[in-house]
Amino acid sequence: MINIYDDINRLEATFRNTNEFKLLQETVEAVRGDEEAKNLFTSFRDIQVKLQQKQMAGEELLEDELAYAQKAAQLAQQNVKILAMLEAEMGLSRVIEEVNRILTKPVQALYDGL
Amino acid sequence: MINIYDDINRLEATFRNTNEFKLLQETVEAVRGDEEAKNLFTSFRDIQVKLQQKQMAGEELLEDELAYAQKAAQLAQQNVKILAMLEAEMGLSRVIEEVNRILTKPVQALYDGL
Ligand SMILES: [Ca+2]
Ligand SMILES: [Ca+2]
Question: How many helices (H) and strands (E) in chain A?
């Protein structure tokens, strides 16, 4: 794992220069700069984080909590700036998935016919 | 996403040359070449795949099925060749996780203070 860092870091630099990364950067800045969008997004995210923590702790989620989280998600996605940011997130996720797909392929091939 | 493939492919070539990848390759070959290890591993994996498919289909897993899967996992891990392969898998997973950690870091940084 010594010289692989050269390649990972080179990839990371190129990654930060992709249109996908730059688009996410721009859309996050647009949300950050709009008080309304920022508040909608942060409350949506805070609710999500709390529910995930409860779920990971093995606690049951109440119907009311789920409905509230769904409402917050709906409200957030009705905001054009947040929607653009979420779409940019998905675009960038696809780049990361592509990296994983290409790295995982030779690993899976090792098991071929086993 | 045009020139990032150069970097991904370069990384993938280095990845295939890591000690972690070569160790997995060797340990998989050792399992493949040992009828007993191969049978233990493939039945363990087949049981796992079936349970995962049931789970993804939303079907409840029976206690007996879980006990059977656990038993198969225990048996498999008692085999030194399979154990070596599973440990090599974990070592290689850590390399892939490291790639993801380094790529994800600048993405998370975009949200700092939001
Ligand atoms: Ca607005
Ligand atoms: Ca044996």
Answer: 5, 0
Does B39 contact chain A (CB < 8 Å)? no
Q: What Cα–Cα distance (Å) separates residue B81 from each residue in A113, B17, B22, B48, B85?
A: 17, 22, 15, 19, 6
Place of tokens 């070449």: B33
Where do we find the tokens 């730059």? Answer: A22
Q: What is the pLDDT of residue A113?
A: 84
Q: Indicate the number of domains in chain B.
A: 1
The CATH number of the domain where B12 resides is what? 1.20.1500.10
Q: Is B75 at the interface with chain A, CB within 8 A?
A: no
Residues whose CB is less than 8 angstroms from the CB of residue A70 and which lie 6 or more positions away in sequence, other chains included: none
Tokens representing B102 are 């380094």
Amino acid (one-letter) located at A47: I
Q: What size, in residues, is chain B?
A: 114
Single-letter amino acid code for the residue at B15:
F
Distance CA A108, CA B97 (A): 16
* pLDDT tens per residue across span B30-59: 999 999 999 999 999 999 999 999 989 989
Ligand approaching nearest to the C-alpha of B41: 2
Ligand nearest to the CA of A35: 1
